[in-house]
Design goal:
Elements (H helix, E strand, L loop, with lengths): L6 E7 L4 H10 L8 E4 L5 E4 L7 E6 L5 H16 L4 E6 L19 H11 L4 E5 L15 E5 L2 H9 L6 E5 L5 H11 L3 E3 L2 H4 L4 H10 L3 E9 L3 H12 L4 E9 L5 H7 L5 E4 L11 E4 L2 H12 L5
Parallel strand pairs: 1-4, 4-5, 5-6, 6-7, 8-9, 8-10, 10-11, 11-12, 12-13
Antiparallel strand pairs: 2-3
């Protein structure tokens, strides 16, 4: 255990991540501790820890899909420090603004992926784990005093793909930037993989010829870290079909699916989208095949905190 032999860890969540936190707590054989929360008439939110944190390692599971969830995470970390938690350990299943990890020169843009992650680190957690980040650059927005971890979902994803019992499978990355990760997943599944670079496709269609040598008559699964509007994914669906794929499925860790993205995939003929429950509110249905990252998180916390469950 950290710091000798402290008492049993306490696990809490922000309001966006109660479902994942409950699953993780069950795997760790811990109770999910519910915060006392009230919303006042003027919109201010009251939080109180229902038990003493002194002498306990605290686990906070908190996705930040919106500004309110992000602020709640900062409040929970700061409050844990105020009430003398032995250690403050944070797991962020989904990091909002993670695609804004850099600013164009002279643009005046705020790279919120960096600036917001820096705010999390400055609240002084001991440990922060992220899941399938869009860009790892955001992890390094600190001065070395925070232990950071990047958790990958490839093993969980491979298990879900195997459940599909697809023959002649090919994994496809929407661009070359994500192809390394798709290659790792393909290695677990012992299947080929390729990339459809959207920038090159805008200039000519030679990429379809390259894809056809791999995709002709096979099932393609397009893999990415997240689906927001689905624009890049939908373009890649077209390329796979043009290249002769007999069927196209989609997989992404973070199923944001903003606006009419879900209907756009249905209109394109996609019958299955695989992804995790990192983004709040996503559940399996006739289109989505949602799997939980709780086993990944629980195993990581078990190893880090020296717990015996899982």
């Amino acid at each position: 255990m950290l710091h000798g032999e402290p008492r049993q860890p306490i696990i809490i969540a922000n309001r966006a991540s109660r479902e994942i936190a409950a699953q993780v707590a069950a795997l760790l054989e811990l109770d999910l501790t519910a915060m006392h929360i009230r919303v006042f008439a003027d919109g201010e939110i009251y939080h109180a820890f229902p038990c003493s944190l002194s002498g306990h390692d605290l686990i906070i599971i908190a996705a930040t899909p919106d500004d309110s969830s992000f602020q709640e995470l900062l409040d929970l970390i700061a409050g844990a420090r105020y009430w003398n938690a032995l250690s403050v350990n944070v797991v962020i299943p989904y990091l909002g603004y993670s695609t804004m990890e850099r600013a164009k020169p002279e643009s005046g843009e705020i790279p919120k992926g960096i600036t917001r992650t820096r705010q999390i680190f400055r609240a002084r957690p001991d440990y922060v784990a992220f899941i399938d980040l869009h860009a790892e650059a955001v992890m390094h927005a600190h001065t070395g005093e925070v232990r950071i971890r990047h958790l990958w979902t490839e093993q969980l994803a491979a298990e879900q793909i195997r459940l599909l019992h697809c023959e002649d499978l090919v994994l496809v990355s929407p661009d070359y930037g994500f192809s390394k990760r798709v290659g790792r997943l393909a290695g677990l599944l012992d299947c080929p993989h390729t990339a459809a670079n959207k920038d090159r496709y805008g200039q000519d269609k030679t990429i379809v010829g390259q894809l056809s040598t791999v995709l002709q008559g096979r099932t393609a699964i397009i893999c990415d870290d997240m689906i927001r509007t689905g624009g890049s994914m939908l373009q890649t669906v077209d390329r796979c079909l043009e290249a002769g794929a007999k069927e196209v499925l989609v997989m992404a860790t973070h199923l944001v699916l903003s606006g009419d993205a879900r209907q756009a995939f249905i209109n394109k003929g996609i019958r299955r989208i695989l992804g995790t429950n990192t983004y709040p509110g996503r559940q399996s249905d006739d289109l989505l095949q949602v799997f939980s990252v709780a086993p990944l998180v629980a195993t990581e916390l078990k190893n880090y905190l020296g717990l015996s469950a899982v």
